[in-house]
Amino acid sequence: MKIKNLITGAVTALAMTASAAFADITLVVPQKAGQGTTVWAEIIVKELEKHLGERIVLRLIPGARDIPGINKFHNDLRFDENTIVVTHGGNGVSFLQEEVDYNYAEYESIGLMNLNIIAGKRIGDDMSAPRFPAGSGMVPEAFAMTLLLCGPDKTVDEYIECFKENVTWVKGMSGGERRLAFKRGDLNGTRENPATYNKHVVPDENAELWFHHGLLDPATGEHGDDPNFPAGYQVEDLFEAKWGVRPSGEFYDAYKLVKSFRDGLQKAIWINKGNDELRDRLRAAMTAMANDPESMAAIEAKNGKYEWFIGEKGDQMRDTLMTFITEDALRNLVKFNREALGLNSVYKANLVE
Amino acid sequence: MLESYFIVLMLGVFYGFFVGLIPVAGATTGLIAIYSFVTYFQDPYMLVVFTTAIVVTSSIGDSFCGVVMNIPGAGGAAATMVDGFPMSRRGEAARALSAAISTSWINGLIWGLAVFLFLPWYTQIVLYFGTVEMFSFLIFAMVCVIFVSSKYWFRGLLALILGVLVGRIGMDPVTAADRWTFGWDYLADGVQIIPVMAGLLAVPELFSAYRMKAEKIQLTNGVIMSQLIEGIKDTWRWKWDGLRGGLIGGFVGLVPGIGGAIADWFAYSQTVAVSRKNPDDSEVPVGKGNVRGVIGCEGANNAQKATSYVPTVLFGIPGAPFEVIVMGLLMYVGLELGTPSVLADERFFDVLLSSYLWSLMIILPISYAFIKYAVYITNLPFKFYFWPIFASLVWSSTQYTGLIDDYIMLALCICAGMVMKYFKFSRVSFLIGFILSYRLEASWVQFNSFGYGWEELVFRPLPATFMALTVVALIWGLFFNKAKIDFV
Asked: What residues does each domain of chain A span?
């Protein structure tokens, strides 16, 4: 009886694994089941399938900082004509300052969601001494709070010193631990995506909005306010209100570079260049999905109301982001990561060549 | 409508029990596998029923692998086999299983009722346990479990150190850089626990058993029945061991970030310690096939699963790895745990409580009835079930990426396990070092990042208590601990 059960189980499992191979389209996801981008992909795929008329199966390839799955797509899977990939903002940040194989320039966009990351704080705290969770790597919030704390007209070295003097940058915390630590008050600041901000920070009677990064307009290359949150909380607006001028300079350029790559590519679906037939079908289905109020209501209920950039508009977003990569911005990004945050970032000269 | 719920409940119960029987698989693997079918749940509450049934029943199914086959259950829960398998070899498999199931069940019931009836009241407990409390508790737990040692103590110490070192492979929590990955991307997320469990502990035991002749122990239905009753009596006789295990498991589940595998060994170590004070001359010592060893650690697993629902449901913060999957599945059908809409949803809590309790009620007679068939397996030559078990171990170990890297990692772990077993380097010590390594390091990094010092450990009430207990455990471990386990 047990042997039969085990064999039946093994066969079922093999059949499930093999189902990805026989699916119409495979979407590579660089995370484990249950993680943010996987859940996002499940929601999108469910809606997209309705308009595509074909089955899309997720293939989860997790790994450190969600890089191995995208590398695998780049080096191997993208040449399969039925395989596409989803990337998230963390992949965009890694692209700037880690040795990764993947390269957005070699793909075409099916569609992407330009999201925002929101920082919350304890009510009444003036945030002159932030205690903030580091996360698994470098985050633009470190740049943002340094700008807000330290003001204009400083060198990158001065910003680094200012950060070290004022910010308690807490490493080693998982997502769950940081949320509890914020609720307890051990941390006085935290960061979330819009959906998790509404879930974890908004209901907390001791928490309030601190800042957000704004939304990038790919046509102008400028960040505008986020209509999902009250006006005036974008970093640039808060900076101007506090210091009397808009932020600018080499440190601000590094901040703009890193926040744009993370938030502008927060959730993006890509296909290898040259796979025109599938690209066009998927873009058409995604356009139909974006025009379907029922589908968008289902997606917005989970992710907030954010604009979709489909097809060539997604490519335009990628191209705009690439213009932010200058030698100075990249060098200053790496310098701050290494000296202020203690990270092992690398300067990738090939990105500015 | 009620019929549909009942059918889903039964499907969840049988599926969860089956997943629990698969070596090293367990609730997390079982829940991941149902992702493909989640769209069939039109009624979101049915998915609550299904997932709850899987969680409850998989931990009871777990016990069979350890006791009958000397193969660990899920997520590091390997302590049951240390005493369970020697009992099985002595022809007392039914007694060990009965005691394991009864203890696990009773603690599941106690802690399930405690959790689901008084859920909102736990908020302050969860919030009270901060970085310093976590750090001091982990030190205490580590000191307790490292004294679960084999008679080859020096090799055990080396194995523990090796486990700690292997646990450090992956991302450095300070620099976020890859550490000791030798350029292999796959290792950058750390060595996964399932291939370690399968390769280091399970497969070497499979090979050993394959070469062994099955012992023809005459087990009639009458003998099995009397052992089953004896196991239930043992559960009552050693109730404090089981309840202590439940308390440890319940506490660990309540606090996200500690990890269920620590609860299992921590509970076992406490039974070892207490058994010295209350020896029973008619039994072999704990660690060599004593039913108290089974009862001590089995108390922890279902209790931990019950209490891990507290942070998950109240805050949307997973209390255990399987809760990440539960949250993802329920979010897919529109139930976002930790949000005001779910917290105000009385039906959700009713369904959660009733499916939890009904799953427990249904699984108990099924488990007892299954003991009879499990015991007969001990009389079968191992070659009959070597391949199905080996196949299921390979399947469980390759669910991480499904790529060739998973197979290579499993092969490496098998080689390491075979070498360690041959040279008698304690694999249990290795596993303990491996499990604790990252958790302790991350906790230490947090402690340092906040700029805390020894003052926090000494002057805060809970950390001070843990540190005092750590000193007691150290003295006991160094000077009075004579218990050694036979398993290497």
From this structure: 2-114+263-322, 118-261+326-351
